[in-house]
Amino acid sequence: MTTLRTRVRHLSAAVVALALGAPGLAGCTTESVTPASSPVAYATLGSGIANPGSTVAVVDAASGKVGRPVTVGTLPSGLALLPGAKDLVVAVKAQNELVEVSTATGKVVHRVTVGLEPDAVAVTPDGTTALVADFGDNTVTTVHLPSFTVGTTVAVGRQPVAVAVTPDGTTALVADFQDGTVTPIALPALTPGPPIAVGPEPGAVFVASSGATALVAGFQTSSVTPVALPSLVAGPAIPVGANPTGIAGAAGSPVAWVSGGDAVTPIAIATLQVGNPVVTGAPAQCVAASPAGAVWVCSGNGALVEVDPAKGRVVRTVALDGLPSSVVLSPGVGA
User: Could you read off the pLDDT of 15-39 as tens digits, one per residue?
Assistant: First the structure.
């Protein structure tokens, strides 16, 4: 069965071949980006024009300059920053691995085998555990940090494609793409609870910093389903436009951003009211937001697009050497 990211990649392939060389896009350089001194956007390049990708792009978010990429392995699919942006963990789907990259040096420092086709990763707030969604095994693999050793494997629903952890670190929520459910996992006991029906093909999960609400993107239904926490009760689906692919929101922000179609759309977390979409000009494949106010979008034309939420428009486009499949921002982005 085709995965969410594969579907989006197929939709974008023709666009990429035309758009990578388009004028007006910031080009790649060999300049080194030093995360310790600059806010950084990291993006997995899960595929290229003809071949699977193998790198994480490193972008100086202040200048838009692209630094030296980090080679992590074939088909990097998801990534997460450790608390304090000390290091980056990357799920490498074609190699069944989780990789740790030092943000200070840009070098791979750890590598461990996890489940089949790892598609996403989240890190607990205390930084002691990485939770890897194993798409091909229908499991979540835990990896102990900083030792980078594999721990317990937890059975979840079919084709897990996303995982998020509540701010208090007591619950992980896993999107089961094929089952149309979200599986809650109690932490640190690692006990899975009854799956929550959220509609066909959930592809992304976001937990608000209040810990009171989770939002689940329904790729097939073009909607977002809210889930009340800690009761784990799903509410009515909220229409958001074409095929949502990602959800992100900054800590303390009242707004979550949903990528989908050729735009990103804000949702007020408290009221669940949908705001005006911001058109990005190409399929919006994933999104990240920083506490400093920046919103960055993975674009189907092989680029990262920066959106200014206050102005409601695109303010910068940074060309990459492949299709970004996930993106994270260091804490200072947008300051």
Answer: 222 222 222 333 333 334 444 456 8
A 10 A CB-CB count for 268 gives 12
Phi–psi pair at 245, nearest 5 degrees? -115, -15
- Specify the pTM: 0.88
C-alpha distances out from residue 169 to 83, 88, 183, Å: 13, 19, 16
Query: For residue 28, what are its two tokens?
Result: 């790649």
Q: What is the dihedral of CA 62, 277, 258, 67, to 10 degrees?
A: -20
Burial class for 182, CB neighbours closer than 10 Å (0-12, 13-18, 19+) = buried
**Residue pointed to by tokens 């804490």:** 331
Contacting residues for 299 by C-beta, under 8 A, at least 6 apart: 280, 281, 282, 283, 284, 285, 305, 317, 324
119-161 pLDDT per residue, tens: 999 999 999 999 999 999 999 999 999 999 999 999 999 999 9
| Mean pLDDT value across residues 164-181 | 97
* DSSP characters over 28-96: B--PPP-TTTS-EEEEEEEE-SSSEEEEEEEEETTT--B---EE--S-EEEEEEPGGG-EEEEEEGGGT
